[in-house]
Amino acid sequence: MIDSNAVHGSFTIERRYPAAPSKVFAACADPELKKSWFAESDTHEIEAYESDFRIGGSERLTYRFGPSTPFPGAKLTNEGVYHDIVDQRRIVSSSRMALEGRAISVALETIEIAEVGDETSLTCTFQGVFFEGADGPEMREQGWRDLLDRLGRALAS
Predict the structure, then answer these.
(1) CATH of the domain spanning 7-156, picked from 3.40.630.30, 3.90.480.20, 3.40.50.2000, 3.30.530.20
(2) Could you report the per-residue pLDDT of 41-60, keeping only the tens digit for each?
(3) What whole-number distance in Å separates Cα of residue 94 and Cα of residue 59?
């Protein structure tokens, strides 16, 4: 028997935004728009954010945690690949997150977008495995909830 401390977790988060599906999709697809809600924060300093939004394209975010965080000065890197893109409907990507160069998780993320009346429904499904020293499923879910709230604020501005 293999001794493993890997923890598996999945969650689904749904949000409704008072914006057209094209605007919600663009906020996920356009690197500058996505950077504003996905990468920028007052809790860390971005070292790099790049996104090649196409099937097979990559996304990379590197930042250092700020002084008021549990890991002040630590470097976090999130590297991903886009696997499926259906214009204004779906984005499927995988990602590997590392803290100070040590892998802490690998995930599959699916964003689904649908028009519902005069609003847009966004469903985020996350499936991941967390390694030793990782934040774990509960904290990652809260992180995605915060990100999707930030997306809502970005869409409103």
Answers:
(1) 3.30.530.20
(2) 888 999 999 999 999 999 99
(3) 10
In SS3 terms, the chain reads as CCCCCCEEEEEEEEEEECCCHHHHHHHHHCHHHHHHHHHCCCCEEEEEEEECCCCCCEEEEEEEECCCCCCCCCEEEEEEEEEEEECCCEEEEEEEEEECCEEEEEEEEEEEEEEECCEEEEEEEEEEEECCCCCHHHHHHHHHHHHHHHHHHHHHC
pTM: 0.93
User: pLDDT tens digit string along 116-125?
Assistant: 999 999 999 9
Residue 115 tokens, joined: 């028009």
